[in-house]
Every structure is written in structure tokens, then in C-alpha cells.
Amino acid sequence: MFTSIINNLKTKEIISSSDVQELREYIKDKYPDCSSQQVSAILADAIKKVINNNIPQFDNCYKQAIRENVLKKAALKENFYINAEDIFRSCFALKIVNDDYLSSFTHWINKYETMPITQQQVKELAYAVCKYDEQSINYELDTIITQLSAAAQIPILTVHNKEQEVVLHNSRSNLKKCIVRCLHRLYQPFRTIRTSYKTSTAAAFLLICAAIFTFNSKSIITADSGVKDIREQVQELLSIGSMLDRHTNKNIRASEYLYDIEHDLHEELKYKAINKEKLKSFLQAKNSILTQEPYFSTIVSIAEQYNINPLLMFAITGQEQGFVPADTSTAKQIANNPFNVYGSWQKYNTNISDSAAIAARTILNLGKNRPVYRDPIEWINRKYAEDKEWWKSVRKLFKQLEREVEYLKLQ
User: Fold this and answer.
1) Residue 32: which domain range?
2) CA–CA separation, 312 vs 262, rounded Å?
């Protein structure tokens, strides 16, 4: 499925290696006083904007995640370039399957296709590839699609493409305009360390982004024509971040310079209305006591109160206590704290309202300030559970619940 679409998207260039080199030369020629670091920072910001301009169908929360995935992949290529197929793979690699996201993704694909595909077709493929890891999706999606089609897990779709004119935002004139705007905004803060802390950290972040994704993974050709190992270049730029830390007496993690930070809980983990009857049916199949009251209604109510996806709350109970089978002798005690907050249900046996509220607040607090390249549930895992693989089981259960329990459209 989608093989012809992938082949078509490969021909849709967004940024080429020659673009990068020409644009660096353009910046140096037009603004000869710029240092190599200034050139890299300006170019980095421009490239980010170009990618954003090529995915206007997506909400901002998704744009950031898609862009970061695309850039991580581009940084590992022998020659830096980005085409529409890179975006296509990244959209699947994020493993987001809610309707809003898939609707945006479908519209994005159809921008390039003369024979439109349906959201249902995109959804079937999205669910089918979810069982693969991110690296496989990013680099072996063609093989995955072929295998799935052969196994009849997804329908085989042939799309006959005709020559069409696609207006992209990657013309050199547009890129240059973008760079000029970036230059005027960024040039002044680089002239002295006596800038605001916020501007300085933004500048440091851009410098490191530029070092990571502007060139290939083996070496970096700087504006001074010197060759440096990428680890050496990144380490040099991280030292700038450390200098800014000392200058402002702030202890900021290096990862905050390397990647954009999502300060709020990820969209997929925020509250969504669900089909409660289908959720109860799912839990009944597990012989779960959580279908009973006050457990079921309390968990759903607390999830809504704290703006957390109720399916995530139930997925955690599934990982922690197997959804609390009703025939367990201690089922009612476990159901008081099926999230194992404060260590375990034995150590902290309270009531479902209290434990659900504690779990919800914990999720909210741990879900903040997440580097966009990290899985939202994995980010919560760093302090929620001692088992570092905990998040994988929760993610699997969460996806299973999403497949079997409908989200309801709010009127």
C-alpha cells in the first residue's frame, strides 16, 4: 500500500544539500560581518520555518514533533536534504492515530496526489505500522508496507500519478526572504553577551540545532572551511550553553539546547470524551472490577477534571494491576489504588478518588517540559516507575484501548 505515493513523494524536494550550501554563501556574501555561528543559527531557523511551511495542514503541536523527527533523520544522511517522503515517514513514525491528526495527514498527502486517498486508508496503515519501532518506520517503511500488503493486513492501493504542479515553499527566493527576516531578528543578540537570558538561550539552541542537522553525521564544513567531527562541534556548542548557564546562574539541561521543549502535556494524552460503554465492554472482557462503581465513574471524572485522557489512566491500571481482576481475593483493596501511587496499593491503601487524583497530578507534572523527540509516556516513566520499560507496556495498552474504544466528537 502507498508504494506509488512514496515514490511520488521522493521527487518532491523541500531542501537540498545544494540549497544549504548556496544559502550559507548567500548569508556570508550579504552579511560579511556574520560569524560562522551566526550563519549557522540563521540558517537553522530558516530551515525550521521552511519545514513548517510545508506542513500547514497540521496543528502547531504536531508540526513541532514532525519537524524534529524529520531533522533527526536528515542529520544522519550522507548529504543533508529533505523531501516530502521524509515528512511522510516521520508522520507515521510518531504513531499518533487520533482522527484530527490523521485527517491533517490525509489532507497533506492529497496535496501531492491527483487521485485522492481516504482517511480510512491512512488510518489502516497507521494502525498496522504502530507495532514497529520508530527507527524501522523511518528507514524501512517501504519494506514494512510490502510485507503488510503481502500478508493482507492492509489493502493494496495503487495510485496512478499524473504530472502535476505542486507549489512548495522551498524556492530560493522564499528561503532568502526567510533568512533575511531571521538575520534582522537574530543578528543583534549575537553581538554581545549582555543580552536577555531568554534570547541567549534561544540563540544557543539554534546554534546546536544548526550543528546537528545542517551537515552530514561524519563531518561538518564550517564557514571557515575547517573540518570537525560532529561530536566535537556539538561539544563546542554545548560549552556555549554552559557559559550561558554560569552567566545567568541557571541550571538548564543540555537537552533543552538541543531540541524544542513541549512545556505542556502532549495533545494525545489530554482529555477526550470516550464511548463509555465500549470501554466497559473492554474491561469486562478482562474481568475487571474497575467496571463497577465507584471505580469506573471516578477514574473518568478525575481524568476530565485534570484534562487527562481517561484511556491513559486505565492503561496505567492495566500495566500496574492487570486492570484488577474481580476474582482476585484482594480486588477491592487493590481497586482503591490501582495506579500504585506512593509505591503500591499495600503501602498506600486509600480510596479511588484520592489515588486517581494523585495519579493525575503526577502525570501532569511529569508530562511537562518534554523534549519533543521523547515519547510522552516514556517521559512520564522517568519518575513514575522504577522499571524503565514500564512505558512500553502502557503505550501498548493505550493504543489497544484507542483501537477498541471510540473517541466521541464534542458538539
Assistant:
1) 3-150
2) 19
Amino acid at 244: L
Task: List C-alpha distances in Å: 184 to 172, 179, 198, 205.
Answer: 18, 9, 17, 18
Contact present, 356 and 312 (Cβ < 8 Å): no
| Burial of 79 per CB tally in 10 Å (0-12, 13-18, 19+) | exposed
Same domain? 296 vs 400: yes
Pair 27, 39: CB distance under 8 Å: yes
Please tell me the total count of domains within the chain: 3
370 vs 60, 205, 237, 374, 375, CA distance in Å?
Answer: 15, 15, 21, 7, 9
The three grid cell numbers given for residue 127, joined into one nine-digit string: 494502525
Listed residues 126, 150, 174: the one ending a domain:
150
Residue range 31-53, pLDDT digits in tens: 777 777 677 777 777 788 888 88
Poorest-pLDDT segment among 187-191, 350-354, 384-388: 187-191
What nine digits make up the cell of 319?
Answer: 500495566
Q: For residue 133, which phi and psi values (nearest 5 degrees)?
A: -80, 165
* pTM score over 0.90: no
Tell me the C-alpha to C-alpha distance, in Å, between residue 362 and each of 5, 7, 335, 355.
42, 45, 18, 10
Rounded CA-CA distance 123/144 in Å is 15
Residues 6 or more apart whose Cβ sits within 8 Å of residue 334: 321, 324, 328, 345
Which amino acid makes up residue 76?
A: L
Strand stretches in 119-225, DSSP E: 219-221
> Residue 388 contacts by C-beta under 8 Å, 6 or more apart in sequence?
381
Query: How far apart, in Å, are the Cα atoms of 388 and each of 161, 391, 394?
Result: 46, 7, 12
